[in-house]
């Protein structure tokens, strides 16, 4: 239903750096639990939705 | 009192009554109550007065006065613009926006209803002026014709509802990894496990199965789906704030069949009420498609 989407940030845990390319803002967390907490906070701050890719990384998207 | 005044007053009253009745029917779509109510009643009164005045003007062969009807048409277009502007200006403050198709539909209805008020007052005035009866019978007949006019216009202006074009059935919400489905219709991707649990616990899912190809085309329109979502959210309430867009109600299509899966996380999780609300949502004029009216469409549907 959304007309325009924008990737605002990416959130990864340690070991997932290999999946990141380009110039998106990246937040690094030490483990999965911290990644989830960071994703919730970033998503709420930016009023955006956190999606998960098959690689496990989180993408914060504003719809 | 000059007889023309009686014609104008009775005609105006009947036209205003028509506007009041149609306004009451439309309450759910109303952006501002009671102030919006007053605005539309006042404009309806003016429309009714113009319709009523037209008859004495024609009798007196004052054809210039009839040109005021053209001014009225312009005024009604302004009403449409006013309604559109009002709704567009509050759209950003809505947690679940109506969408442009719904807004345009509401604005169009408000314009059309002033014409209905004018037509009712005109017909009442015609009978009060020309019916070859004594005054009491003439008055009774004119009022009766005005009421019949309101009833007939109400029937003619009847709109189809989603319940007429689609079957609405409860559906199971499930996650496959982060992907949210309503039965087998993909809805969205939710990364955070905590949010997934919240949706599974509090969400309601329904399937909208179109009854024919015309219905399938209507439900494919995103404006129509936004209207459905808006009405459900407005009536049931939603567990969402501006910083939690994960809980935005969504309606997505199944590309194989054209059926629509919808999810909402309501304040009042009552499935029966949700289905009733969806059934009552109007089919927007701008979203109506009738592929089955064409030869190619019928052939494709075989």
Rg for CA atoms of chain A: 11 Å
Count structural domains of chain A.
1
Write out the strand line-up for the largest beta sheet of chain B, numbering strands in chain order.
1-5-7-6
Kindly report the average pLDDT value of chain B.
Answer: 88
Secondary-structure element series of chain A: EEHEE
How does this model look, in words?
The complex is a heterodimer of chains A (63) and B (302). Chain A has one helix and four strands, in the order E-E-H-E-E. Chain A is α+β, with helices and mostly antiparallel strands and 63 residues long. Chain A has a four-stranded mixed β-sheet with strand order 2-1-4-3, covered by helices on one side. Chain B has two domains: 3-156, no CATH class; 162-301. Chain B has helices at residues 3-25, 35-59, 63-66, 68-91, 100-130, 135-156, 162-165, 193-202, 213-219, 222-236, 271-280, 295-301, and strands at residues 166-171, 173-176, 179-182, 185-189, 204-210, 250-253, 260-264. In chain B, helix 2 (35-59) runs parallel beside helix 5 (100-130) and helix 5 packs antiparallel against helix 6. The N and C termini of chain B lie far apart (68 Å). Chain A binds chain B through residues 1, 36, 39-40, 43-45, 47-52, 58-59, 63, and chain B through 177-178, 188-194, 222, 225-226, 229, 242-246, 248, 250-252.
Which features would summarize this protein structure in a list?
heterodimer, A: about 60 residues, alpha+beta, four-stranded mixed β-sheet, 4 strands, about 25% helix, B: about 300 residues, 2 domains, four-stranded antiparallel β-sheet, three-stranded antiparallel β-sheet, 12 helices, elongated
Write the layout of secondary structure elements.
The complex is a heterodimer of chains A (63) and B (302).
Chain A (H helix, E strand, L loop, with lengths): L5 E8 L12 E4 L2 H15 L2 E4 L5 E5 L1
Chain B lengths: L2 H23 L9 H25 L3 H4 L1 H24 L8 H31 L4 H22 L5 H4 E6 L1 E4 L2 E4 L2 E5 L3 H10 L1 E7 L2 H7 L2 H15 L13 E4 L6 E5 L6 H10 L14 H7 L1
Antiparallel strand pairs in B: 1-5, 2-3, 3-4, 5-7, 6-7
Helix pairs in contact in B: 1-2, 1-5, 1-6, 2-4, 2-5, 4-5, 5-6, 10-11
